[in-house]
């Protein structure tokens, strides 16, 4: 089963189909943020392109990262969740896949990303994260690709400039 979520941003809207059957833990976490209104002021604050990431990165990716935008002064309101690998869920990081951002396994909470193009290095066994566990895919952009690409086009240029000086604001996120 999939659940549709509509995301409205300053650059337009897009819809995500959340796969709560294949990724139940990750989907439930995302939907909790949606249902509690915590993504209504989300930001797309990190846009990673082949050109703007660290030149030493061996396994380059392209993604739009967005979410609650935690900081030291603004921690995630809910605890991190268990890691559902792509091997467990049977999902992979294809073009427009939505996934959880994380540092260590079990650290994902309130930050998400959308793949621009296929990103197999983000799957279980991929080499983007040294632990090889990959990232937890849980959905797919099914409408509004043009909006996601407008956000992606807002990327900063130059190596080491993944983080936006002026993040793209989300105005409303709700079940469709």
Set out the fold topology.
Elements lengths: L1 E8 L2 E8 L4 H12 L7 E6 L14 E5 L18 H4 L7 E4 L10 E5 L21 E7 L1 H8 L10 E13 L1
Antiparallel strand pairs: 1-2, 1-8, 2-7, 3-4, 3-8, 4-6, 5-6, 5-7
What can you tell me about this protein's structure?
The longest helix has 12 residues, at 24-35. The protein has helices at residues 24-35, 86-89, 145-152, and strands spanning 2-9, 12-19, 43-48, 63-67, 97-100, 111-115, 137-143, 163-175. The chain has an eight-stranded antiparallel beta barrel. The protein is α+β, with helices and mostly antiparallel strands. The chain is built from three helices and eight strands, in the order E-E-H-E-E-H-E-E-E-H-E. It has one domain (2-175): Cyclophilin-like (Cyclophilin). The model has no long low-confidence stretch (mean pLDDT 96).
Tally of strands: 8
Task: Please give the share of residues in helix.
Answer: 10-25%
Write the CATH homologous superfamily. Answer: Cyclophilin-like
Shape summary: globular
The structure class reads alpha+beta
Sheet with the most strands, sense and barrel status:
8 strands, antiparallel, barrel
Multimeric state? single chain
Rg from C-alpha positions? 15 Å
Order of helices and strands: EEHEEHEEEHE
Strand content is 25-35%
Q: Which sequence of strands runs across the widest sheet?
A: 1-2-7-5-6-4-3-8
